[in-house]
Amino acid sequence: MPPETLPRPAPIGNAEYRERRTALMAELPPDSAVLLPGASLVTRSRDSEFPFRQASDFHYLTGFPEPDALLVLLPGRSEGESVLFCQDRNPALETWTGIRLGAEGAVREHGVDDAYENSERESCLDALLDGRTTLYLLLDDPDSLTLAQAVRGRLAARARRGARPPLAFADLAPRLHARRLIKSAAELALLRHAGAVSARAHQRAMAAARPGLAEFQLQAELEHEFRWQGGSGPAYASIVGGGANACVLHYVENRAALHDGDLVLIDAGAEFDLYAGDITRTFPVNGRFSEAQRALYEVVLEAQQRALDAVRPGTTLAAIHDGVVRDLTAGLIRLGLLEGEVVARLDDESVKRFYPHSTSHWLGLDVHDVGDYRRDGEPRPLAPGMVLTVEPGLYIPADDDIPAPFRGIGIRIEDDVAVTAEGREVLTADVPKQVDEIEALMANR
Ligand code: GLY
Ligand code: MN
Ligand code: MN
What we know:
Bound molecules: glycine, manganese (II) ion
CATH class of the largest domain: Alpha Beta
Oligomer: single chain
Structural class: alpha+beta
Distance between the termini: 15 Å
Largest sheet: 6 strands, mixed
Shape: elongated
Strand content: 15-25%
Number of helices: 13
CATH superfamily of the largest domain: Creatinase/methionine aminopeptidase superfamily
């Protein structure tokens, strides 16, 4: 029987993309301009390419899905402030690539004010940017810089004939990324859906697991569900690590066999309309936790639950991480994996041997989403509309000084959570994480 299809949220409409552009321009000086290229196709090997994935910043401001486009924002321009450059219509080429919207289609379908095809790019761009004093672009993006320098060079060469090249380049990233950090209702709906699809995929992998399967076969279960539900695929390379492979934080080979008596750690999330889910679950391959596995798992689970409960406006990711470090440190002392008093072990940061990463990151169009983590040197307070992960873990090396039952166990539990006015909404709650729930789901598989 085919799996159920979840109802899909509405795509983000042109009106919202327009509002985003307008709001961004309202922050910029009137004689400035924004220059923001979209993504191009990337070669996979020889003449085949990776599936196209639009650049997140460009997508955020346009929703325009084709490669090799360019957005120019011109605050105050009477003929229209949002100008898009896109690929030329070319019926012969479109036989191979599928239809390209062209300039007319871009205005009609995507609601930009004005559009040109790339064959006209140089001359139009120079005319549009002549006299704009400051160009805002992503200074970390070499393609943006090259493009801006080329325009500047051409205008500078014509300065004697009256052309007015830009006097300065400024970074668009702080303003744009501050906006992306706070998600709209439509974005939250997409993140909720990416979370729900990812949760189903994890349930499916849990139900399929048994000794003798390979890690890649659980990966196949996950990724089948991502596509079945209309997602584009994984939002990042899926991690399926059995046994000690779970201790390799970015383990993506997923080639090993799954063994009776081992745990398996799965860190995988679907991408839906370019928004990412990001879930980690860790469970026994054979469906039953051993005593040591359960003891360690409960330490991580308790830390994770307390961290989730702490998410609310006004707190900080640093405070949440500090709470996790305290809880994990105390748990490791209880289990005999660390010695001495909690205070002393917090002082010498002993937990870093077993927990070397931080607890949270922003989540959105990028799995490690944009947005400052600090403001004026201080951790920034959480606010409604922010979306983050909570993902504590413990990774116990197979070293001689470690009690044998704990060696090579890796555990991480990760959920996605939106900050709301009242507190939080966990977006990935549909996948079990209590020991009893996991064992029950697996017993019935
Ligand atoms: N899957 C990447 C992360 O959890 O941050
Ligand atoms: Mn994560
Ligand atoms: Mn993850």
